[in-house]
Amino acid sequence: MSVDVLMPALSPTMEEGTLAKWHVKVGDKVSSGDVIAEIETDKATMEVEAVDEGVVEAILVPEGAEGVKVNVPIARLTGEGAASPAPSAATPAPEVVAAPTPVAPTAAAAAPVPAPAVVLADPEIPADAKLIKTTVRDALRDAMAEEMRNDPTVFLMGEEVAQYQGAYKVSRDLLQEFGAKRVIDTPITEHGFAGLGVGAAMGGLKPIVEFMTFNFAMQAIDQIINSAAKTLYMSGGQIRCSIVFRGPNGAASRVAAQHSQDYSAWYANVPGLKVVAPYDAADAKGLLKAAIRDPNPVIFLEHEMMYGHEFEVPEGDHVLPIGKAKVRRVGVHVTLTAHSRMVGLALEAAEALAKDGIEAEVIDLRTLRPLDHETILTSVRKTNRLVSCEEGWGPMGVGAEVVARVVEHAFDYLDAPPLRVHQEDVPMPYAANLEALALPTVDKIVAAAKAVCYR
Amino acid sequence: MARAPKAAKTAATALSSSNSVSKEDLLNFYREMLLIRRFEERAGQLYGMGLIGGFCHLYIGQEAIAVGMQSVKQPGDQVITGYRDHGHMLACGMDPREVMAELTGRAAGASKGKGGSMHMFSTTADFYGGHGIVGAQVSLGTGLGLSNYYSDNGKVAFVYFGDGATNQGQVYESFNMAELWSLPVVYVIENNQYAMGTSVERASAETHLYKRGVSFNIPGAEVDGMDVVAVREAGLKAAEHARSGKGPFILEMKTYRYRGHSMSDPAKYRTREEVDAVRKTRDPIDHLQERLETSGWADEAALKAIDAEVKKIVADAAEFARTAPEPDPSELYTDVYLETAAQ
Ligand SMILES: Cc1ncc(C[n+]2csc(CCOP(=O)(O)OP(=O)(O)O)c2C)c(N)n1
Ligand SMILES: [Mg+2]
What we know:
The structure holds 2 protein chains of 2 kinds. By secondary structure, chain A is an alpha/beta fold. Chain A is built from 13 helices and 22 strands. Chain A has 3 domains: 2-96, CATH 2.40.50.100; 123-314, Rossmann fold (3-Layer(aba) Sandwich), CATH 3.40.50; 326-452, Rossmann fold, CATH 3.40.50. Chain A has helices spanning 94-97, 136-150, 174-178, 190-202, 221-229, 231-234, 264-268, 281-293, 342-355, 373-383, 398-410, 432-438, 442-452; strands at 2-6, 16-22, 29-30, 35-40, 45-49, 54-59, 68-69, 73-78, 131-135, 154-158, 183-185, 206-210, 244-248, 274-276, 298-302, 310-314, 326-329, 334-338, 360-364, 367-369, 386-393, 419-423. In chain A, helix 9 packs across helix 13 and helix 10 (373-383) packs across helix 11 (398-410). The relative contact order of chain A is 0.11. Mean pLDDT of chain A is 90; it is low at 81-117. By secondary structure, chain B is an alpha/beta fold. Chain B has one domain (23-321): Thiamin diphosphate (ThDP)-binding fold, Pyr/PP domains (Rossmann fold, 3-Layer(aba) Sandwich). Chain B is 42% helix and 9% strand. Chain B contains 11 helices and 7 strands. In chain B, the strands form 2 sheets. A 5-stranded parallel β-sheet of chain B has the order 1-2-3-7-6, with helices on both faces. In chain B, strands 4-5 form a two-stranded antiparallel ribbon. The model of chain B is unreliable at 7-18 (pLDDT under 50). Chains A and B meet through strand 5, helix 1, helix 4 and helix 12 of A and helix 1 and helix 11 of B. Bound molecules: thiamine diphosphate and magnesium ion. Thiamine diphosphate sits between chains B (84, 132-134, 162-165, 190, 192, 194-196, 261) and A (159, 188, 190, 212, 216, 219). Magnesium ion binds next to strand 4 of chain B.
């Protein structure tokens, strides 16, 4: 009896890869743990180890083949392993079936996010600017590199940022360019290195502190709030703290409650902090550069599921103002507000709504503190209807604040009670079907928009 | 809390070996280590097929620690660890089916599919998780020790954490209280030499991690974590120390993880030769197999039979985990709160 060796997934979002190299040939005997092949994705090269013992009976995918889909048989073994055959590849993986959101996975990063009906020129971007396709990941890296070139007091520290090139490869090549004094690998000690960062900022440096994810910043949140946010005030304006805390925030795929939380509302609640949460690569770059230059502590919330997405970024020293929202799609019937990855979902929802004759205006908040409520109010005064979208929990959330501002300043313009779309009010479950139910989706946004339009 | 009286002691740095293991013990160790190894290989395979999602940290290479330490546990002693938890759960006697079904996110999983690889628990097996935040389990485990001390139940909490975790501040806050109050805790540092891509040398000013309790007066010992018998011997002494009211003990287990940190780790921070050398010369299962064969306690055929039995258990668990139903959608909202008792 023989067993198929299948193209493995290296990460929850991988769909295909390149079969870079075979380490075995037909007739070779392999045992469990032997490296049989190398496969590559845009993020990494990995060795495939044999799980079963046996003899290579056939090589089904040649060396160098690109775009090999996960779960396709790549080789066949004969032998002992046949006693425990691999589960049939024909069974669809539940994860794929219940992919939590329509956002394209990293491996398919080129898949375009649907273009809004009206593409709006950003007033901050010169009309003749040369645009270069860049991933969010590289835009963030470029922002750090440019600021480090400009200002010798800027440095980066965090877990795996230097030699490993970043757990999500955001700091790729920075160690090579700037050296170990300015790109610092820390031990796993978030409370400690966040405190060191704040102290170094008080001493006049401009640290960029990377949290591998914001879930781990919980270890450090005391230094962020009690020290970074409040010291300027407590010292009567004497002690400054120009520091950026950055890293991926929000839900990743299938990593469950302790690794999937959106902290937007937590930090946006605190005076003394600025909070930025960009959606596309141009904003990621322009706002990170602004955050690094800002004399205040800035919380910079990225999103793991956006890192691989490509967008156009203006060439050169592209810096955007913190505290300005952006109208991403013009509409007249309902205003959708969103930030970070949810902007993409709101834009998709707007496309779906347009098919039913509802033209939604989509506002990308970009900065949560200070919140640009003028842009929201201007829109609501036109559409008279509001749906806020966020990945985090609803109670006391970003949407709660957006709705409160609108009710305070534009109550008379509202034709329907505003609605909020957000994560269900439970910790993030692991199971694929429950996770899909817990997350906010395009369908949920569409339903809420229709509800406020009484449709 | 008042400091409990205790016997004077000196920091042990080496634990002598006695012969506390029988043939049956060794055959059991062999079977349990093999079960963990085969289980993890299969989990890696299911991950590659997309049946397991998110992060999945395999225990391959470290089997002797969970199995050797398990053998010194008494009923009611608690175990707590981080996200590299599958091996510990199997060693605690949890059903491979419920562990694998949690990995695939099914209703029959140990956490009803809600926790996944990193967050599994079993009150019946006295297994307190499965924690995703590096270092958190050290304070939690010390708290389990506090509950034992408080109720004077004679139980010991076994708290496992990695070399990387030893740099978290809460570890030392916990060490201080554990010694101050003589809590019955055995701290087991699984030093597999890397925290993700960072070697111990690049992260730790003192690389002899068993000395990390020195400034708290907690005794520590370095142990060959690839030798199940050495693990057991050290575990017996440490557990005895903790159980007799003398307070915590630190065991630094020298070990190695064969696979990447998690499934998506390209592992460029070490060479293939380094991994192969450990596999060839220090493998805990090969080591025990040799010991069993040279002592004449088992021949190749007997060990093959164990292998076949283990493979069957793992194949059954995988099939179960693949076909078991997902949780009912209504489970999304359960277990957030307990009902408040009627007044
Ligand atoms: C507080 C916190 N910081 C960072 C992480 C990300 N992370 C997960 S495991 C890990 C490495 C831990 O290494 P070690 O303690 O040696 O355990 P091992 O993985 O080797 O078993 C890191 C950095 C985390 N889960 N929690
Ligand atoms: Mg380690």
